[in-house]
Write a structure and sequence with these properties.
Number of strands: 10
Strand content: 5-15%
Structural class: alpha+beta
Number of helices: 13
Helix content: 55-70%
Number of domains: 2
Largest sheet: 4 strands, antiparallel
Order of helices and strands: HEEEEEEEEEEHHHHHHHHHHHH
CATH topology of the largest domain: Formate dehydrogenase/DMSO reductase fold
CATH class of the largest domain: Mainly Alpha
Shape: elongated
Strand order of the largest sheet: 1-3-7-6
């Protein structure tokens, strides 16, 4: 196969070249430490920076859970590298939010937020006092990430598990191209989702986040740790796919598929299925199975409709029948995992129509039913004709099912960002850090 080395060489810098680092004011240490638990109420909050800063009187604000300001006028020490603010009225068994903003000599005004607890575990910075909740931007970013993962995992699964054997050069290059672009897209969408979440908590415009202190979000939350692991892992996936494209390394695709499926667990380990009071390893596993199944199903439909059908007519029958068999297993696993998650999240039947989460779930179930009905039509009427050697005009219908499947991912993204109803017995329980 003629390998597009020029294309690979053009895409490689987007993956391997590190971003240019611009020096600016950064927070070196804090007391109390970020996301820490202290035994006794502190009398001051102390922040140490890597260079001299200037401040306003309210450079440090310490807030109680009800929004009450508990800090006094801030001052600088050590020539301007240390900023200190007195605090009073802190109580044992309570958590507090620290919001700060200073000015550097370069004219930029870095800011940050973190939480700490006195004798109690603090909430994550995404739940700090003053933090905004999830918005349509969060749901859009989550949906685009789902789509990118589907376009990464689905075509790889189709190529390796369904299509098999060497393919025509044009079709093979399409598979390569889609895989590499999907991996790079997943990296960039994941970065955007992280910045959107941090922006909600810091209450800063996205353009100012480059000067914000993102360390508490990246290193002290499940969401941030999952973001870091997935970003590095997806970079490795992109490298494997580029090597497979450039050097025709078939085994590299298998490694890329396995790694991609494993990395998808990052979303399950950092979402509601892992952080709510009734979460368990079973809910995390079910959510991961549900997500991977959806990625293979949606990505497989995209592969059939947009890659195989217009490019390789001689492979249509084999690809459709092979995907039909795979989809039966995948959809079955998705339905079982989804049913279990619904029972965990909504223990009462009335929760389906009495809670916001339940109504969103009903909407998703309606779209899923439409997609499954469409797939059932293909299985009952198109598959027998293809097995008999007759090829019906099915591509428009495949595109229709694919569109509905993408709508399922959108509904899943909105549902994922919506908090499920709390159980009455655990309404006051402290949740794990997200």
């Amino acid at each position: 196969m003629k390998r597009p080395l020029a294309v690979v060489a053009a895409l490689l810098p987007a993956f391997v070249l590190p971003a240019t680092a611009f020096a600016h004011v950064t927070l070196e240490s804090a007391f109390p430490e970020t996301q820490s638990t202290v035994d006794a109420s502190p009398t001051e909050v102390r922040l140490t920076f890597n260079e001299l800063v200037t401040i306003a009187p309210q450079a440090i604000r310490v807030l109680a859970s009800d929004g009450a300001l508990l800090s006094g006028t801030a001052r600088v020490l050590d020539g301007g590298r240390i900023v200190v603010a007195p605090v009073s009225g802190l109580k044992n068994g309570s958590a507090y939010t620290v919001r700060w903003q200073v000015a550097g000599r370069d004219g930029h005004s870095p800011a940050g937020v973190y939480t700490f607890g006195v004798g109690v575990s603090p909430p994550p910075p995404t739940e700090a006092v003053g933090a905004g909740g999830t918005t349509w931007r969060d749901s859009l970013a989550r949906w685009l990430l789902f789509v990118a993962l589907a376009l990464l995992i689905g075509p790889l699964a189709m190529r390796l598990l369904v299509v098999g054997r060497p393919l025509p050069d044009r079709l093979e290059q399409r598979f390569h191209f889609v895989g590499v672009v999907a991996a790079l897209a997943a990296i960039n969408v994941g970065i955007a989702a992280f910045f959107i979440r941090a922006s909600n908590a810091l209450q800063l415009p996205l353009g100012d986040l480059i000067y914000g202190d993102l360390q508490p979000f990246a290193e002290k939350t499940r969401f941030g740790i999952a973001f870091l692991v997935m970003t590095v892992g997806l970079g490795a996936v992109a490298a494997l796919l580029l090597l497979a494209w450039a050097l025709d390394l078939h085994a590299a695709r298998w490694w890329a598929l396995v790694l991609s499926i494993l990395l998808a667990s990052g979303l399950s380990l950092s979402g509601h299925q892992a952080t709510e009071s009734n979460a368990s390893w079973m809910s995390e596993l079910a959510d991961w199975v549900h997500l991977v199944g959806a990625c293979i199903w949606v990505g497989g439909l995209v592969t059939l409709a947009l890659i195989v059908w217009p490019t390789a007519p001689e492979l249509r029958r084999r690809a459709f029948l092979g995907f039909s068999r795979l989809a039966m297993v995948i959809v079955g696993a998705m339905v079982l995992a989804g049913a279990y998650l619904a029972l965990v999240r909504l223990p009462e039947l009335a929760d389906l129509w009495e809670t916001h989460y339940g109504r969103l779930l009903l909407l998703k179930l309606g779209i899923v039913s439409l997609a499954l009905g469409w797939g059932g039509f293909h299985h009952a009427f198109v598959r027998p004709r293809l097995e008999a050697g007759v090829e019906p005009r099915v591509r428009p219908s495949l595109i229709g099912e694919m569109t509905v499947a993408l709508a399922v991912l959108l509904a899943a993204a909105v549902l994922t960002n919506a908090p499920p109803p709390e159980e009455p017995s655990s309404a006051t329980a402290v949740r794990l850090s997200r």
